[in-house]
Amino acid sequence: MKNSVPAWLRVPVLFFVIFGLMEYFIDSGEKPAFIAYPITQFFLLMVLLLLIAIEMILKSVENVMFHTLSEEAQQKYLKARKSSREWAWGKRIYQKLTASKPIAEEGEIILDHDYDGIRELDNRLPPWWIYLFYGTIIFAGIYLVRFHIFGDYTQKEEFEQEMAEARIAVEEYKKTAKDLIDANSVVLMTEVSDLEAGKSIFTTNCAVCHKPDGGGSIGPNLTDDYWILGGGISNVFHTISEGGRDGKGMVSWKSTLKPSEIAQVASYVISLHDSNPPDAKAPEGDLYTDPNTASEASETISEVEISGTEMLPESTNVSEE
Questions:
Q1: How would you class 288 by CB atoms within 10 Å of its CB: exposed for 0-12, middle for 13-18, buried for 19 or more?
Q2: Could you tell me where in the chain the CATH 1.10.760.10 domains are found?
Q3: CA distance 299 to 288
Q4: Residue 120: φ, ψ to 5°
Q5: pLDDT at 80
Q6: 236: closest CA among 213, 270, 276?
Q7: What's the chain look like in SS3?
Q8: Distance in angstroms (rounded) separating the CA atoms of residues 267 and 188
Q9: d(C-alpha 66, C-alpha 58), whole Å
Q10: Angle at 180 between CA 178 and CA 182, to 5 degrees
Q11: pLDDT value at residue 301
């Protein structure tokens, strides 16, 4: 009938042990199991209720057994239970850490001088404070040898290393966080699912001005090589997000569409290039050439020129006699 651990401590400990085991054995990817699988929340609730019910049953059994004891045995039990709650081991640890004198023994450490009846006790420094002070001395010695004698990394190097790791972590996070993209980080989507999603958004929101085939109506033709605010995935993303020209251009869609949805519809618009729809609107804006395509073409021309030069026969000088 004697419990060394109270119920208010036993129930939370058992609950969190079971919770930890559940998280360890259930593979839920990056999310905690109780979030990835809502059914586990019901399981944890049942576990908590079961633990509370067990404690209530034990308490009831203890109460029944207590009333079966004689009055003398009840008094002994209550006395033993009261003493067990004092946590003698905790008192012993506290005494070792503070090394304080009991009030009854303070007469041994009273100093001779006093002021207005106030007398001073010659208490020792608390051992916990002394140990902590010694620890700081040891730490300072190790730090001195490591960083100032053997020349380990500096604070600047540590900062730069952690910043580099943080940039890598941010880039990895951006790969999975689809809505953390902007005009500078967006890339052209080519997956069929993304293009289909972009087509659906385009048909719902954009076809009224650009026609379902992108040939242009109130808005410009989106299938030719001419763009008012620049072509390419970055420019198209920026135009959809921020809107067109003030007063006569397209409205901003960033408050209506998520960044990932803007990327999908922008990729779909790019896919309409050279589709040549019937009754397409005349070109507007400036001729746009993709910088990447232009650089690739330039490299190809250079390679052809170099290979052509290598194939030419060497010139010979013929001297006239």
A1: middle
A2: 192-293
A3: 19
A4: -105, 140
A5: 75
A6: 270
A7: CCCCCCHHHHHHHHHHHHHHHHHHHCCCCCCCHHHHCCHHHHHHHHHHHHHHHHHHHHHHHHHHHHHHCCHHHHHHHHHHHHHHCCCHHHHHHHHHHHCCCCHHHHHHHEEEEEECCEEEECCCCCHHHHHHHHHHHHHHHHHHHHHHHCCCCCHHHHHHHHHHHHHHHHHHHHHHCHHHCCCCCCCCCCCHHHHHHHHHHHHHHCHHHHCCCCCCCCCCCCCCCEECCCCHHHHHHHHHHHCCCCCCCCCCCCCCCCHHHHHHHHHHHHHCCCCCCCCCCCCCCEECCCHHHHHHHHHHHHHHHHHHHHHCCCCCCCCCC
A8: 6
A9: 12
A10: 110
A11: 45
Q: Tell me the two tokens of residue 152.
A: 């380990």
* CA angle, 268 then 227 then 197, to 5°: 10
Rounded to whole angstroms, how far apart are CA atoms 14 and 5? 12
Identify the segments of the chain with pLDDT beneath 50.
Answer: 1, 294, 296-298, 300-301, 304, 311-312, 315-321
Contact, 237 vs 183, CB < 8 A? Answer: yes
Q: Which CATH architecture has domain 192-293?
A: Orthogonal Bundle (1.10)
pLDDT for 9: 84
